[in-house]
Amino acid sequence: MLTGQQYKDSLQDGRKVYFEGRLIEDFSAEPGLAVPMNVAAEGYDKYFSAEPGALNPVITAPRSAEDLREKIPELLEMDLLLNVTYQSIMTLIVAASRIATSAPQFIPRIEAYIEKARRDDIRITECITDAKGNRSKSPSQQDDPDAYVRVVERREDGVVIRGAKLHISAAALGHHMMVMPTKTMKPGEEDYAIACAVPVNAPGVHITNTTYHPTDRDPRDFPVSSEKSVPDSMCIFDDVFIPNEHIFLDGQVEHAAVFAHSLGLWERLGGTAFMVEQADELVGLAQLVAEANGTQKISHVREKIDEMIIHATLLRAGLEAAIMHAHATPEGFYYPDDMFTNVTKYQGAMQFGTMVRHLHDIAGGAVLTAPSMSDFDNETLRPFLEKYMSTGHEVSGEYRTKIFHAIRDTTADAYGGWHLVTNIQSGGGLFAQRLVTRRHYDMDRAKRLAFRAAGLPAS
Prior knowledge:
By secondary structure, the chain is of the alpha+beta class. The chain has 15 helices and 12 strands.
């Protein structure tokens, strides 16, 4: 296993990582990369063992519904890079079982890769969403054939791929990228049915980065995002060679969607659990700022907080239902129920804006205009700020200002905007949740009840 420092050293491998157009050679000098790198390093140290042959203990699949429930606190405490590594390895395990009969040649490669990845203690990020070009056209119909990642050359010892993957969290900070088809492919699109592992430092790989990290601001004004930022990337593959041992699917269009669907089994639990935690956090911020403002007993404020509590509780109930109705794969790995998980995620995403609106209405305009914490450092200003930001002997100006900054950072600034979009788009957009819900909902039972209510015979 690697220590945190060994992990940091491993990133100095010649990778082509860019930020705001600049090629970055020293991650520690770029706050938007240094902070998440340090968080990932802390994750390495947290689970490190010097025992010979030791493996990271959290990269294990749940074997029962109770294991699934017990996994939630672990997932919430993991750094994102370890979380997506866990998801990537579990995805390969499930995908292997699903293609074993018709594509057995890939199974030894997948098994060997998993064993080596765990032994080397590397971090793996998931690369799914393609550039896609014109969304109304399939991969083979695009004006630019590189709109979806594809194989442009096949050799005896491997393949060469070209294209790009978008919205990839923490790609610059991992060791490998697990590339997989983003959707079902059809005959004639064999070149797009490619799943493989790509080292971040492979020749031809270029990674751009965007971040909500407050790179040039006082971190005290951004109490959450300054500590928990993660860069999102476009991963460009400019004729990148992939050796055979890193190829897990190549041309089998009937299995193109297997990897993405397998990933969904493991991605849903963590995403839903975070959404539940986030809903409770919004309730806490609303209550704190109401108390700081002296408005906690006003009826409309209480009603809004009550509605936020109901929302948070319904999300938690949905998560519990998803776990209680968990299903097992043929290998005995448990994953949350599709319908309850997707309904919960849909409701969480749909109502997030309303809950944030309630919070802003309760808090007031100081969410945006509260003085910077650095203003409190000024000896001339501090007495005035304490006087006018205070709401009484028990609520200091500094205390109340810190609450405003927490609300702004999490809901009304770059990090808040990031959440607004990712709550909707991560793991598939709202339409995807509706499709899954309809597919799993017992419509026949609903119709039988309706026929009975109408006094009609069931057809």
